[in-house]
Amino acid sequence: MDCVFCRLIADGTAHWMAREEEACAFTPLNPLAPGHTLVVPTRHCAGVFDTPPEVLSASMLLVQRVAAAMRTALDASGVNILSASGPGSEQSVPHLHFHVVPRWTDDGISTWPTGQSRHRGSGRTAGRRPRSWRLRAIRRSDGMTTPPRAVCSRGRRVWTRGVRRWASPPGAGRGPRPW
Description:
By secondary structure, this protein is an alpha+beta fold. The chain has 3 helices and 10 strands.
């Protein structure tokens, strides 16, 4: 096994904060702040793209519990939840993981990106979201579809449900709004 997180989980050698069936939490070797915790799925998943929904859900529930414990035990005023997934994201370990970093006002660290991507896309989607991003319904884990609300490039609210689509500017008289 060449994954460092899988080895830690199998050997049980980490400083554990929580160990559950689908996810676990432990302290990193070089914490950014007191209480900094890593939450990882217990089975190997390289990133968010190949993680089964139930594993991702269990991991995020543990992230939420760790964050709540930080607020209570460390008197943190907030948390940063950081994750990178895929080769273009600077993912340091090819195993899905979430850094949960407690934060305090004026703590002296910044985890927010300071610049913009140099990537500009190509062809007709250059500089804007592709149409499919705005108009595709979201498939939930329970099999139902949730129509997304979004704002398209012309400033109209868009709602999709099946094959019907409403796209009307605010105040337009096209019947009752679905939102």
